[in-house]
Each structure stands twice: as structure tokens, then as C-alpha cells.
Design a protein that fits this description.
Length: about 130
Amino acid sequence: MSLSGFLSLQRAVIDHLTSDSALMAQISGVFDEPHHRTALPFVLVGPLQASDWSAQGLNGKRWRLTIRVFSDKPGDHHLLALADRVHDRLMSVPLAIEGGHVAAFSFESLQTLRDPDGVRQGQLRFSALIQTL
């Protein structure tokens, strides 16, 4: 899996989240890039950071993936409920990706922000250790 292997990880995450009917009933979609007029709330997959995770006889990458949840509802309750749903969904079953094996997938952090226009954002950060097949 090369540096472009992020697309396989991104696709697996998007597919996994969009297969959750309860989550999809609460948001307008899960995107790698939202359209200009995307209705809130929605989930955005990315950006990412990659680093080497190779050792003798092992070729792999550590991917740090940020998933952002956007909501225009007042207060953090709705935002945190959506972020919790995204977290639980991604941690519930192992991800399967093309061209690699997900050796570990873990949650790192959550940060909430409020944009000047009142849109709330939850940034969930995950780490994936992926061995190249």
C-alpha cells in the first residue's frame, strides 16, 4: 500500500459509516469533500497524515485520520451525540481495505470547535496501522 493507499482507507471508512442507517437518518451524508450547498449536519472524512510503520520483513504505514462532524444545532449535545455514533460505528468492527491489512485501529482524541458563523464542529482523530499485502 503506497501513500495513495489513503483512498482505500477513506473508502472503507465512508462505506462503513454510510451503511449505518441510524447515523444516515441524522445527517445529510458522509463526504470526502462537501458540496457547496451541503445541508448540515454532515460528516467529512479527512484530512490525513501518514508516516512509516515498517520493520524488518514488514511494510506498513501509520495513518492518522481526522473525521469531522458538522452541526448547526445550538449547544454541543447534538454534535457530541453524532460524534459518539461515528466513534462507536468505527470501533465496532474491523475495517477491511484493499491492498492492506488493518493491524490496529484506535481512537486518539476529540476536539469540539465553533466557527464564527455558529456551526459546530467535532474533530475525531483515529490512528490506523496498516500492513501492506
